[in-house]
Amino acid sequence: MFNTFKENKYHNFVKDYIDNKTQYRYIEELGLGSYGVAYLIQHLSSGENYVLKRMKAKHRKNQKLRDKFNLEIQLLQEVDLPNTPTVIEQGKIEEVPFYIMDFIDGQTFEQAIFRDGKTYSVEQSLQITSQLLEYVVILHKKGIVHRDLRIPNILVKEKDLYIIDFGLACYMKEDVDFDKIDNPKRAENHISDLYFIGHFLLFLLYSNYSPTQKKERSWQEELRLPYSLVDYIERLLLLREPFSSADESLKMLQSQLLKHPIVLTD
Ligand SMILES: Nc1ncnc2c1ncn2[C@@H]1O[C@H](COP(=O)(O)OP(=O)(O)OP(=O)(O)O)[C@@H](O)[C@H]1O
After folding, report:
1. pLDDT (0 to 100) of residue 261
2. Is 33 in the pocket of ligand 1 (CB under 6 A)?
3. Which of 15, 40, 43, 79 could share a disulfide with 27, CB 3.0–4.6 Å?
4. In the chain, how many H helices and how many E strands?
5. Where are the domains of the chain?
6. CATH superfamily of 107-257
7. Residues in the annotated binding site for ATP
8. Which residues are annotated as a binding site?
9. How much distance in Å is there from the Cα of 179 to the middle of ligand 1?
10. Mean pLDDT of all residues in 42-64
11. What is the ipTM of this complex?
12. Ligand 1 neighbour 167 (Cβ under 6 A)
């Protein structure tokens, strides 16, 4: 098996492969996750940028992880939305599977908030969440749950949102007993995506927050949001009765929270 040292060696292998055996040239590494590595590459004749994502070399003999990686590609192909990257091609480099997809030349919300110090008002946070929910409703209609809608996996480019990293996505299970969900993050239905969207919304709202006290308090106390919005977020986070679908939560957001101007409580 490739160990950490060999992973570096494999990295050089991939670079050589891209530069000498494909119609692309290697530009840089974009990110290294627990299972995969993503690289920025450029198509030689068009000059367009793409992303090559591969499995980590040390996992290449692990059939379960290979299946997981193949499922990621399959789901991304099935999603086929303007706001998710299109899969261009797939293959193997020395037994390690990879695929090439569109490069979304935007910023992740993690970069926007934590690197660039971007702040979002309550109104903006709700507008962005509404846009995200619209895409998630379509995703769910296609029978797919993303299950990792965190700030590094949602990009913004010219005010449009894009969803990447389908590494934990799965086919949606229709009949699930809500009382038996002990880990909402891993639920194989809308509950998981709504739970992550609740946290996503809190990240946006916190971007505008400056602590007034040393002692850390709950988000309900710190953010001083209107009751209707607290209630809404609590439903996303399963602290209250969950929404029966992403569509229901989108409708409530659009018909009740976005319709009236948000007034913060003192
Ligand atoms: N299609 C894309 N367009 C733009 N940037 C991308 C794209 N795909 C990945 N990236 C960048 O590369 C980083 C890593 O990619 P990705 O999130 O898919 O893999 P990972 O999370 O590192 O792997 P794993 O699935 O093992 O956790 C992302 O955070 C993002 O910055």
Report:
1. 61
2. yes
3. 40
4. 8, 10
5. 7-102, 107-257
6. Transferase(Phosphotransferase) domain 1 (1.10.510.10)
7. 53
8. 53
9. 33
10. 95
11. 0.93
12. yes
